[in-house]
Design brief:
Elements: E1 18-28, H1 35-43, E2 50-57, H2 63-67, E3 73-77, H3 83-92, E4 96-101, E5 106-108, H4 112-123, E6 127-133, H5 142-156, E7 170-173, H6 174-179, H7 192-202, E8 206-217, H8 223-244, H9 256-278, H10 286-297, H11 299-323, H12 325-341
Parallel strand pairs: 1-2, 1-4, 2-3, 6-8
Antiparallel strand pairs: 4-7, 5-8, 6-7
Helix pairs in contact: 5-11, 8-12, 9-10, 9-12, 10-11
């Protein structure tokens, strides 16, 4: 059954929508290491009326063999199209009146679908509901926990008016998704959920974040992995934000706190450079004030670090957040600006 068009084939109204049926849509690309855990968690839901669709986006590993072991629907794309196209393909083959998008490295909480159904039923079809990560990830190491707490705090701090809803836990009425024409397939490699959220809000939809809808993410981050992720995400955020003219917006993980943190870090480096150049300690006088201001601006995130794993973790996470992480974010932002304004940039 073709509920929605895919890759320019045209868009069609659903004809087999079942009342209360939730279609869980999972794009997969080379996710052999995580897709089994993802499906086990999804299929263990305490909600009684759902289907699980996995769209394999041309994987070259053993993903398809793993997926075949579970009672789900497999849609195979013979070459890689990208996550946006894979999600659209899942929606085009879904039967549910409610779509729940998640990722192949996310483990749905047992009650995630039940809460999603309750929310979307209460709010109505013109509301898109989002969930977020658990503060403690699947892999209990420092860098993965840092990332999970950071995303949970950033996404959940404005539940009544989030800037976007992320596809690791996005709940949307199938008819609303149809009218919105799905995710943009000719977009950046990531952030299709941000573009979709902004487009749907302009069309009159309301965005809601319910932190009780949770997925446990599998990060597997080392120091290098954490910093690489920060560079890549920041680069594409900058490209999108410059094009969307909302570079200074308080937008989820691209929060004002993070932007202030990056600015404070780089200004601190400038002051240290001036000190090295002129050997004048007076240039360092603003430094303690900047550090104090940064700690104050980010106090909510620092409290989340503390609440998650105690004082030792909070201190280590605060030091990493204030003095290491912004270097990667800033480098990514610079790369994004070069991509946007350089000779090959769109601007």
């Amino acid at each position: 059954m073709k509920a929605f068009g895919f890759r320019g084939e045209g868009w069609y109204a659903p004809t087999m929508t079942e009342s209360g049926l939730i279609s869980v849509i999972i794009p997969n690309y080379n996710g052999e290491a995580t897709i089994g855990l993802c499906l086990e968690a999804a299929l263990a839901s305490d909600y009684g009326n759902f289907e699980v669709l996995v769209v394999d986006d041309g994987s070259q590993d053993g993903s398809v063999d793993v997926i075949g072991k579970y009672p789900c629907r497999l849609i195979s794309l013979h070459r890689r199209h990208g996550a946006a196209a894979a999600r659209n393909a899942g929606a085009s083959n879904s039967k549910g009146g409610i779509l729940f998008f998640t990722d192949a490295d996310c483990l749905l909480a047992k009650d995630a679908l039940s809460i999603a159904y309750r929310d979307i039923s209460a709010y109505g079809p013109d509301v898109i509901v989002g969930g977020t990560y658990t503060r403690t990830p699947y892999d209990d190491d420092f860098f993965s926990t840092f990332q999970s707490v950071f995303i949970n705090y950033s996404e959940a701090k404005r539940p009544e008016a989030p800037d976007y809803v992320a596809t690791h836990a996005m709940v949307v009425d199938a008819g609303t998704f149809l009218k919105g024409r799905g995710f943009a397939e000719d977009f950046l490699p990531i952030l299709e959920d941000v573009e979709f959220s902004h487009r749907m809000r302009r069309a009159g939809c309301r965005l809601i974040m319910n932190p009780a809808i949770q997925v446990r993410h599998i990060f597997g981050f080392s120091l290098v992995g954490s910093l690489r992720n920060a560079v890549v995400k920041s680069m594409y955020w900058t490209v999108y934000s410059l094009g969307n003219r909302d570079l200074l917006a308080d937008s989820g993980t691209a929060s004002l706190e993070l932007k202030f943190n990056v600015a404070a870090c780089f200004l601190g480096l400038v002051l240290l450079g001036l000190y090295g150049l002129f050997d004048d300690p007076l240039v360092l006088l603003p430094l303690p004030l900047m550090i104090a201001a940064n700690l104050y601006v980010s106090h909510g995130l620092l409290r989340a670090f503390y609440d998650t794993k105690g004082l030792g973790f909070a201190i280590a996470a605060a030091l990493y957040y204030a003095f290491v992480y912004p270097l990667a974010v800033g480098a990514g932002a610079l790369a994004g600006a070069v991509r946007s304004f350089g000779p090959d940039g769109r601007r």
